[in-house]
Amino acid sequence: MSSVDVAVKTRNSMRATDITDPNYFHKVVDCQWACPTHTPVPEYIRLVAQGRYTDAYMLNWESNVFPGILGRTCDRPCEPACRRGRLEDKPVAICRLKRVAADYRGDVSGLLPKIPKKKNGKRIALLGAGPASLTVARDLMPLGYSCVLFEKDPRGGGLMRTNIPSFRLPEKVINEEVDMILDMGVEARFGHEVTSLKSILDEGFDGVFVGTGAPRGKDLNIPGREEAAKNIHIGIDWLTSVAFEHVKKIGKRVVVIGGGNTAMDCCRSAIRLGGKDVRVTVRSPRADMKASDWEIEDAEREGIPIFDNHQPSEFIVENGKLAGVKFARMSAEYDKDGRRKLIPTGEELIFECDDVLMAIGQDNAFPWIERDIGLEFGEWDMPVVDKTTMMSTRAGVFFGGDAGWGPENIIWAVAHGHQAAISIDLYCSGQSLTASRPAPGISLVSQKMGLHEWSYANDYSEDSRVAVPHVATKKSLKNLKVEVELGYDVKLALEEAERCLNCDVQTVFVRNLCIECDACVDICPVDCINFTANGEEQDLRQSLRVPAVNEEQDLYISDQLKTGRIMAKDEDLCLHCGLCAERCPTGAWDMQKFTYVERQANPAGQVNCMAYIS
Amino acid sequence: MTYMKKPNVRHPGLRKNELGLTRRDYEGLVSTLCAGCGHDSISAAIIEACFELDLPAHRLAKLSGIGCSSKTPTYFLNRSHGFNSVHGRMPSIATGANLANRDLIYLGVSGDGDTASIGLGQFCHAMRRRVNMIYIVENNGTYGLTKGQFSATSDRVSKSKKGEANLFEAIDLCTLAIHLGAGFVARGFSGDKNHLVPLIKAAFRYNGFAFIDIVSPCVTFNDHEDSTKSYDYVRAHNEAMDRLDLVPEREEITAQAEEGQTTTVRMHDGSLMRLHKLDDSYDPRDSESALTTLRKRYAKGQVVTGLLHIDDQDTDLHKLLGTTSQPLNAVPMSELCPGNAELAKINKGFR
Prior knowledge:
The complex is a heterodimer. By secondary structure, chain A is of the alpha/beta class. Helices cover 29% and strands 19% of the residues of chain A. The longest helix of chain A is centred in the last third of the chain and has 19 residues, at 410-428. Chain B starts with 37 loop residues before the first helix and ends with a helix. The relative contact order of chain B is 0.12. Chain A binds chain B through residues 1-2, 4-5, 86-88, 452, 458-460, 462, 515-519, 521-523, 525-528, 546-547, 549, 562-563, 573, 575, 577-579, 582-586, and chain B through 1-15, 23-24, 30, 34-38, 40-41, 43-44, 190-195, 217, 219, 223, 231-232, 235, 238, 240, 243, 278.
């Protein structure tokens, strides 16, 4: 190598990557990194591909507790993160592959953690029977804790049961996964609304977990609200009434106000309960709607129109009854910082209707928590909660899910539940909630099986995302309980699973084996490997074969090689195909499976996740 | 070798050239050579050079003989013409093809066995005839395909993988090429693409016989401690004489190079080749001085790389023979075959 090619190493040159840092490779597994519970996504997708549905289910269950429910309803932060989505337009259908594991699994009763007959003498109160509390119970019951669950509704599941309509999530699925936990011996007090935290504390529990969600739907105080109250419904309350079959029909003309996922559930439920002219109205432009794209798609597929830039200004009352909603047309303007301002255009219009469903957001509500028990409240009248330990300012009282953090989603509630369970266990055994928290387990194992054999399917599938089959809309609109999505069959699931890039199988570079022959550079289909002079990160990113413009993705940097250059790999679009390792004559590149396990309170309950962790 | 197909998917941010093509559009099949073979790097350098020169692949013909090196045209430019000839006979095929269709770009790819042993005579004559082509020798100093015997370019001091001594002197192909009148003679190293790609680009722009001897380590048989063609040896003994810049015609030259340090050569297509010399002990336009430098450096065990010799008199076989300016497939049949009467006239001239 001639010396002119290698610039003098500057002081601000990049340092070699420390791959023993658990976060480095974890970040490369975009889906797992994005998942609040850090479910090992590529691993379960491989199990689905192998037809090992029960194993795939258990791996999920250990990590996210409700695979069947989440496989239908998860907010799927993993999918926008999926590397495949950056290579082509659509990510792997991770969520629906989870459902496949749940749909085709065998009997798992023998695989669930054993519950000790002899209890450890500690009693824990769980307030609210939603995903956060149920997760705490699942993590603590196998350790010998006695859990007492308080719930105002007659059945467990929280918003999973009350707010998600059964055409998206059949009752049977909820029952199975909720019962798995209740059957561990949880003492459930259904129909018991807690009206005083003090009274619970007085019962002398060793720990209290508040997982009561964000149960108050926001209201809209505009003219006509009180006069028309009979036909104006708060979305989440109305959905609850539908779930418990207290409401079985709605007027022919329905206006839904709001653009989030609750609004989508409301409009789709309304059209199944007698609504003929159901409209969704949003005050913001469509692009800013909070609902997930796929939920908007589902509503539109059922023929429900969405009117954006419509701000409700008045409920029209005729003869003491709701007759319509008056809207002001809005127009969005953005200032130079990108902040949005909605400006009325001056145009007004009226949608006539029989009923209104309001789905404009949810609030937390803690009228039942006394303010003199050492539990501090902060901004927005939310309890002050430590975001790591989940403990409030009163020792022994923990919060999680929407109750602790404001409206989020199921998977976040589960993640909080795991952390709270760790804290409760540490708290009850007198250990530090911070210093004693268990570190994640990681391992890195070569996947080389032979000269050109790898233990994973490294062939790149060029297929596009496989659509999930639906029942005929005509049929599903007739019956609230008919599940719209049929789920993948085994063949479709296999096809979709093959789209996964196996991002957990990492490209590991060993500097002193490299002879700088460039074989890896030349073979890499996405030009992510470079041998170049070191430099400052910004300069280096620009100087690569394809500039590394996605700064959310790291550069994998080696120490100096013989010629004075470094290896710099842009992790952004790596296919994890292993061609670099195949072409490397010295084994300087190897494909190694990275396993990352977020520890829980009960390590014995993570046997599937821990399979590769020593 | 790799059994896996290289996926068609590519980086969405991949640069496009003037033709709207990416580097990947110049690729061929996945190589079946040993992993880490220097030849694969040369294929990649050819791909890079063609991409950067905006060459339309269908205007190029790849020709080769027999050997590991001669397999490589399958691994690049799969939209180009190709001819895989009998061992050592690529120069004849190239000469014939070039005479028939002077409009194509001819790229010959050969190895040290194909060129310096069985094909030495053919190689010599193509050079003295100044066939307008690029002739690349992927020189690994060993017969890799037959399990690592010494080749005619193995250095006297080099040993085989098993430690046997080499009895014979090496043929230095660059020296031979300068002697026989090749107008563009260069040496590159497969392990240094930054230096190699500009050499290949300049060779594509040269009108006449352009020869590049590329040292290309054989990872399987000739990459050991006692080899003079290993990655380590070449890196330790590489003496780059110059660095090349090819300035396309459409670009203005802005920076003025220092006098005496830079030689500028105008190529036949109007582009300029700028040679930044790192060693001013010789002049690449003076073949005598180039030969002396090569000999002296070789005696010191150095591997001299760079553009060693250039003759900018712009002559090729067509000019020497005074052939028609059109490719034969574009000459009307009436001219191409003037008929019996004309033949009789010609024959009469010989009686």
